[in-house]
């Protein structure tokens, strides 16, 4: 029985459905007290004074804290910047001197209960000197703009211009050019569980225990040890059940060291559970980018040049890794297409808004949207079918590994096959007939197509968070029970189940009999947690190596017990069997028992005792195996390159601009799938987030830098009635660079639907005689209606 | 100033999952927090505090409510069922829960208790819902992980199990 490739439900389903999961807010300890954070009400201001005296007098208040105490007693939070040439910025667990976004932590109160803590926070009196806020990325670049960081002299975190070939020359020669101005809005992950932390310090053991709704406990431990001046071994970070993360729970938020510092100071457990408004204000944002493009094409649909100006509004500087999404958006261009003459100008701008944190897709969604809009426009100009024009420009299957002009090293793929499969599944050719009969009924429907490239296994130089390796320990007990302890974690996506399946195949034992432990720095080998689908690719590959080692040892011992050669043995169904002679076997448990309990018997005495090994796996696919820039100074940032085709069918109401997604068809290639059920589950979630971003979600700031969408009453999330059934199927082009052949599917599906819906809207409106190229997200009814009205005016006609 | 900040408590007598409780709660406390903090029934979750996400769904006097929008003091003398109360035994899940487990109707599990109780209400009111009715029935419960499709499938499977008699099995679809 092989478990890899089987769709089995998640191992944690039972506990979670029973309501017996343990999320950080579920944990209580004797003597627990509660933290409330005082947050800046201003987008940009100098802190003039903080008076905590009224708060301290409130009965039940244990302590208050301001930045001044933090600076005296802790080190700055390690940031992710300067790895790629970003300007340096120093920050602490509380704001010092200046506040740079509404919601930034400025002070805090700890009290016996949450009500008193909140009251105390309200009594802390902070006086500010208001400064002009920087809320628009274009305006932030103008001379004379207010500066978010005075010392920088401008509002640019980093910028880069990369030119390959001679795009200007190609543009001059070309048959035609298309231009567009794609804008993705600011929005975010909104996991249903917001952030939460519980910290407890034991003075006698000099040990800090920190329960955190985080994705990367070991990285967090490392950062905390630097901030707090503790040894790593003095800190235990535990990631309990996490109610969704999607990247937004990657370290380091200011509340994390803040609460740990307070727990150490007070020697009482301190808990903070974020309220939703705090989460929307300060829990990490994403996506706000502008990609202005110009592309040249030939009459046969070939794209001969592409110029992009990418402007990213990453919010205030922080210790989060979100700003990297702008780099990735630039790096992905031109994705699956062969375009040799490319110019990409990326400008990453800081503003007085909430800092970006990683959000599923991590910037890929923006460049996909831009490229797919470009392709649709070129199809329109040349009169070609939208699928044909993409096929004309795809990288060919025999050209892999393919180095893109940006340095992206694409491992393997067959885009043609994936696209063909999607066109068939969606009945692309049959759609015009459906469209015509819908029009007869007075309905405008449209179909759109998008091809997404969703690389995984991110690897950034000098990163303690995003690196292409991880470690897993596999242990077999004296009774033959298998335990996996891994450095990768799961915020609910199911990789613990996939990793159990991988080990199940190596050792021939059902995953039901395998225990997986994740998220405890005292127990699990050092690892970088969860992001970029790394858990299965790296953690799973490391698990395969470790389990394989144990498999080999057990086979050697079993071979002596059975007097055969180890090559003659198979491990299956809890037995170690002679191939072709099913009656000749020893049980898995007996072999383990022999190794542990009869260590000096002939069968076992030549082996190192025990069945317990930790292996680390490093992914291939990086230049010179060492992650160095190539002769042209380019770096590859990703290990694997899943990709897929998405086709969306929508109905547009021309009177109201309301868009209804009728069908979403996806064919995806994520290499070998460890667990197709969990892959589909993850895909569905990604589709929902992509459609949410396409049609509903928006974090809106006013000109004063105040967030107007600070509750779920204002921030629109897709519900079950807003989404269609998703039709998914898979192709498999394995990764040549890891022993699983897997590419990871955690972010797959996040980019395609948004771009496909945009194309489908244009296609629907064509039925009304309107030529529209929607470019600005989200495509709310208001915005779609405006596109319709503008087109009517521009074309001077009224649709029937 | 301190007078107006004095904590005020009020006694609440309530039956939760067929067990009677008597607690003194802060007058500002919401029902969700009373269940979680005072009664240590942490299966009911808080996701938004504004009645939008449904993670806090419980059954109050036979109907689902969003417990983040109910003041704990107001349930004095009432009867509540939470996710912890619907299993037939300590180790056997309710057929609706079993359907969710087998159909992968969850991932992180945070919305799941609320989703399961909303399903219970839906199938009580409409034992054989269409897919559209299912989607409407859970439109007050947000899920960020699943995209809802496997939840819909779970509910379809749950409807079959309940109509086969409690605990009746049916083949889960993938």
Question: Please, could you describe this protein's structure?
Answer:
Chain A is an alpha+beta fold and 800 residues long. Chain A is 28% helix and 24% strand. Chain A has three domains: 13-131 and 189-282, Aldehyde oxidase/xanthine dehydrogenase, a/b hammerhead (Aldehyde Oxidoreductase, domain 3); 410-455 and 641-800, Aldehyde oxidase/xanthine dehydrogenase, molybdopterin binding domain (Aldehyde Oxidoreductase, domain 4); 469-618, Aldehyde oxidase/xanthine dehydrogenase, molybdopterin binding domain (Aldehyde Oxidoreductase, domain 4). In chain A, helix 7 links the parallel strand 10 (207-212) and strand 11. The longest helix of chain A is centred in the last third of the chain and has 29 residues, at 534-562. Chain B is of the alpha+beta class and 174 residues long. Chain B folds into two domains: 3-85, Beta-grasp domain (Ubiquitin-like (UB roll), Roll); 95-163, [2Fe-2S]-binding domain (DNA polymerase, domain 1, Orthogonal Bundle), CATH 1.10.150.120. In chain B, strands 2-1-5-3-4 form a five-stranded mixed beta sheet, with helices on both faces. In chain B, strand 3 (57-60) and strand 4 (63-66) form a beta hairpin. The termini of chain B are far apart. Chains A and B meet through helix 1, helix 4 and helix 18 of A and helix 2, helix 3, helix 4 and helix 5 of B.
